[in-house]
Amino acid sequence: MPSTSPEESAMQPAKHSRPSKEAARVHLRPPTAVTCSWQVSSLNETKATQIMQLKPTQFVRFNQRQLVRIYPSSYRVDSSNYNPQPFWNSGCHLVALNYQSEGRVLQLNRAKFSSNGNCGYILKPKCMCKGAFNPILEDSLQDQVKTQLVLKIISGQQFPKPKDSMLGDRGEIIDPFVEVEIIGLPVDCCKDHTRVVDDNGMHQYSAH
């Protein structure tokens, strides 16, 4: 399978004589006879971010007919990771990460793909397969029916003690709480937590 398609060159910023401070122009060509859905356009995170900011709606449409792979910038010499969520929001198919760097980004990646049994892929929502929207707007899908998620924390027990406890190996009694965060389109993002339960990390408790 080719690693790039003829359209990749179309997604490169056009050369011009204006100062470099000005945003580069980006062209997303319409489908032609030479573009095939099974060909992959590989873009680094910097180039993809530029395209997404300049032409977000066109980028969504492009991802509906063409495979797109995003990979970390070569400047990430420390193997750090970028936030994959904006590229998922735009419909990018392959968002490569540095798996050797554990942290919040890989937690987000595992959480996303756990919804399909960790088999390696998930299906796009229907709204991302037909039509177009602007994924960077605060409320980009105003015509979609809103869904309210209600969670009830029943109980918790046997929580581990902090590794950096001031009491050494004996540890210390923790004050647990549960925090839930939803990450997706800007309109979906929110975070909330239960009340803090003082000095109770071992026995079952309720935290509504």
Automatic annotation (TrEMBL):
Gene3D superfamilies: C2 domain (2.60.40.150), Phosphatidylinositol (PI) phosphodiesterase (3.20.20.190). InterPro entries: C2_domain_sf (IPR035892), PI-PLC_fam (IPR001192), PLC-like_Pdiesterase_TIM-brl (IPR017946), PLipase_C_Pinositol-sp_Y (IPR001711). Residues 38-128 form the PI-PLC Y-box domain. SUPFAM superfamilies: C2 domain (Calcium/lipid-binding domain, CaLB), PLC-like phosphodiesterases. It holds the Pfam family PI-PLC-Y. The keyword Lipid metabolism applies. Residues 1-26 are annotated as: Disordered. Its EC number is 3.1.4.11. PROSITE patterns: PIPLC_Y_DOMAIN (PS50008). GO terms for molecular function: phosphatidylinositol-4,5-bisphosphate phospholipase C activity. It catalyses: a 1,2-diacyl-sn-glycero-3-phospho-(1D-myo-inositol-4,5-bisphosphate) + H2O = 1D-myo-inositol 1,4,5-trisphosphate + a 1,2-diacyl-sn-glycerol + H(+). The keyword Hydrolase applies. One of its GO terms (biological process) is release of sequestered calcium ion into cytosol. Keywords: Hydrolase, Lipid degradation, Lipid metabolism. This is Phosphoinositide phospholipase C. It comes from Synaphobranchus kaupii (Kaup's arrowtooth eel).
